[in-house]
Design goal:
Order of helices and strands of chain B: EHEEEHEHEHEEEEHEHEHEHEH
Distance between the termini of chain A: 43 Å
Helix content of chain B: 25-40%
Number of domains of chain B: 2
Structural class of chain A: alpha+beta
Oligomer: heterodimer
CATH topology of the largest domain in chain B: Rossmann fold
Structural class of chain B: alpha/beta
Number of strands of chain B: 14
Number of helices of chain A: 13
Shape of chain B: globular
Helix content of chain A: 25-40%
CATH architecture of the largest domain in chain B: 3-Layer(aba) Sandwich
Radius of gyration of chain B: 18 Å
Largest interface: A-B, 50 and 60 residues
Number of strands of chain A: 18
Radius of gyration of chain A: 26 Å
Strand content of chain B: 15-25%
Chain lengths: ~375, ~290
């Protein structure tokens, strides 16, 4: 789950990190009110789940209320890398003396947490990593041991932050690590972490990605789920608990297991078709889940054919077959369906499907055959 | 021969009294796996179709001599279940459960390294391990695997593991052991662990590897292969056409910042001498070719 900057800052503030006072605004009027409350100068910042806001003109300094109004007007509705700006964060402006970079994430190779700190902040860290890799100080933290103050201090010194920033940085980084671990984050990033003109270390931006698997111990994360960026199809699928990613083709894909679903998308492409989506109905799929999956695909106006590719491990063939038959009774499916069924109780499943087969409900012996049949149907070729 | 497990492996099922644990525990027993115990502190002293339930893994180990454990506990309980299994004295732990937080995985992975260096964890979020004809721990449908070798399989994806077994069986090719390492960010067992075990196993003559987008596990495996593997390998990487920035179901399966693409992984493997197919069927065909030349 990706947090907007303002949510990330609220999250950081809960762990005692210093962030600027600000207010959320959905309209120009709200932006003006927020600026009046905070007092100018303020920053007007687009809230989107993507980087490069500054370059796209989504972050502006406003010295007066008139400027707030002008910038808010311009930024709301702006398209930043395909993300339309619907929210603004109006924040008290800071006097910046220096800009740093700090983050924690999981290093999957080392299987430890990786902290990155650089005295060269404010730019994309990937650029720093490429052009000046020694400017990034890295620390690997064993999750069992955690981050000690001593190790943190050494790390800050290694990053060559100036003397007057060291204490403030250590304090913030220890809190950042705590937020990262305690909050079950995949990523916490502060870019820039600043030194102010009056010598304080301060959090000026917040990028936070939370692990959606951890919601069972963070009830409040349900609210963040409401503000994820999803297209209409993804929203519908998500509300039914399905793993769905929208693509741009005509062949609806339903498979069990992420790997098989990815592979099905690949194979549809390889036989000359274009998948409309990735949809993993997961391990414990039953008639209800299959119905929900077919409904989501059926509501995608671009879909011309549906390829259901099931290999049974947890999912039993007769459950899938019953699910399809059940779904066909419940929903009027617009598109022809090709089913490939293998694995646990596949024969029982196929036997259930047998009496229902027709030109618009076909079975395929293999994954490749299934993809070819579905692509042919999507292109309007009868076979 | 097989790796990690064999026909003598005695297995405890943590969560045998739950619906999934019971369903697969009994299926595994029907397959021939020595399912010797279940655990549930509230149901100690009872049994599930003749399989005794103990209060803890430690007690179950003491009473049965089990050396492996299979976890069917819901995600919030997996962290303590893994540590309980290691403390209880088993040396092979298979965690089937999906949806375990990444921080939990990182924590118990490192805890095992530190305190229980001889314990091998497989998973979480994996289908388990099957040595056809000998032992099946997890959720793989036993009948899709042909016993006898000469191929060892290691896979990051559940259903693609079955697909791989199926492709080989269709061609009459058997499997020594098939290990599903799972698609989570911190898998207990890596490609490299399995490749090393297959290289050391005299019955395994070739290895089939199924990877997917995200992370760098396949690239690391490629490096290991060029330095350490003498046995031929075929591979498939799922997600060739996956768009960047979108998680494809698995917590680990994402192309981000231009890293973790299927193309980069396929190239790394090809450079290491691996025969890489564009889909599971092609990888199966390549393996058939390899086997015919053994």
């Amino acid at each position: 789950m990706d947090l907007f900057e303002y949510q990330g800052k609220e999250f950081f503030a809960e762990y005692g990190m210093p962030v600027s006072p600000g207010e959320l605004a959905l309209t120009t009027e709200e932006a003006v009110t927020a600026a009046e409350n905070l007092g100018c100068p303020v920053m007007v910042k687009a809230q989107v789940h993507t980087g490069g806001r500054g370059k796209a003109g989504g972050v502006k300094f406003a010295a007066s209320i008139d400027e707030v109004s002008e910038h808010a007007e311009n930024i709301l509705g702006l398209d930043i890398n395909g993300h339309i700006v619907e929210r603004l964060w109006i924040e008290k402006a800071s006097d910046i003396a220096e800009e740093y970079y700090a983050s924690f994430t999981l290093d999957r190779s080392a299987k430890k947490h990786l902290g990155m700190l650089s005295a060269e902040g404010g730019v994309e860290i990937e650029t720093v990593a490429e052009e000046n890799p020694e400017a990034i100080a890295r620390i690997w933290v064993d999750p069992v041991e955690g981050l000690s103050e001593g190790n943190c201090r050494n790390w800050v010194k290694e990053a060559a932050l100036p003397e007057q920033a060291i204490e403030g940085a250590v304090e913030i980084l220890l809190k950042l690590y705590e937020a990262y671990v305690d909050g079950d984050a995949d990523l916490v990033e502060i870019n820039p972490l600043i030194l102010t003109e009056d010598g304080r270390v301060h959090v000026l931006d917040a990028k936070v990605t939370l692990d959606s698997n951890s919601v069972f111990r963070h009830e409040s994360y349900v609210d963040f789920d409401q503000t994820q960026t999803r297209d209409e199809r993804e929203t519908a699928a998500h509300s039914k608990g399905l793993q769905y990613v929208g693509l741009e083709g005509e062949v609806g894909v339903i498979a069990n297991g992420a790997g098989l679903a990815m592979s099905t998308v690949d194979v549809v492409n390889q036989v000359g078709g274009r998948p409309a989506n990735f949809l993993d109905i997961g391990g414990g799929a039953n008639a209800d889940v299959m119905t929900a999956a077919l409904e989501v695909i059926n509501n995608d106006p671009d879909v011309r054919a549906i390829f259901i590719n099931i290999f049974g491990g947890i999912t039993r063939g007769e459950e899938i077959a019953n699910g399809i038959i059940d779904a066909l009774d419940r929903v009027e499916i617009r598109s022809p369906i090709v089913i490939r069924l293998d694995g646990t109780n596949a024969d029982e499943g196929r036997a259930i499907l047998e009496p229902h087969l027709s030109q618009t409900l076909q079975v395929a012996p293999t994954m490749l055959d299934g993809a070819e049949q579905a692509v042919a149907l999507a292109k309007g070729i009868n076979n | 021969m097989s790796i990690f497990v064999n026909s003598e492996t005695k297995v405890i099922y943590q969560g045998l009294t739950g619906s999934q644990g019971k369903y697969y525990g009994l299926l595994n027993r029907d397959y021939g796996t020595k399912v010797v115990a279940g655990t549930n502190p509230k149901k100690a002293g009872t049994d599930v179709e003749g399989i005794p339930i103990f209060a803890s893994v430690a007690e179950a180990v003491e009473e049965t001599g089990a050396t492996a454990s299979c976890i069917f506990i819901p995600a919030p309980g997996v962290r303590s279940a893994v540590l309980e299994a290691a403390q209880g004295g088993v040396d092979f732990i298979v965690a089937i459960t999906e949806g375990v937080p990444a921080h939990d995985e990182a924590l118990f992975y490192n805890q095992l390294r530190k305190d229980f260096p001889n314990v091998q964890l497989l998973g979480p979020n994996c289908p388990g391990i099957i040595s056809p004809g000998e032992c099946n721990i997890g959720i793989t449908a036993g009948h899709i695997a042909l016993p006898g070798g000469p191929v060892g399989i290691v896979s990051r994806s559940g259903t693609l593991t079955y697909q791989a077994l199926h492709e080989l069986k269709e061609k009459g090719i058997g499997c020594t052991t098939c290990v599903g390492i799972g698609g989570d960010p911190v898998p207990g067992t890596s490609f490299i662990d399995c490749l090393a075990a297959f290289e050391a196993d005299p019955e395994t003559k070739a290895v089939m590897m199924i990877g997917e987008i995200g992370g760098s596990a396949e690239e690391e495996a490629a490096e290991f292969i060029s330095n350490n593997m003498t046995k031929p390998i075929s591979a498939y990487i799922a997600g060739v056409t996956a768009p960047p920035g979108k998680k494809m179901g698995h917590a680990g399966a994402i192309v981000s910042g231009g890293k973790g693409t299927a193309k980069a992984k396929m190239e790394a493997l090809e450079e290491a001498g691996v025969k890489v197919g564009n889909n599971p069927t092609e990888a199966g065909d390549l393996m058939a070719e390899i086997v015919s030349q053994l």
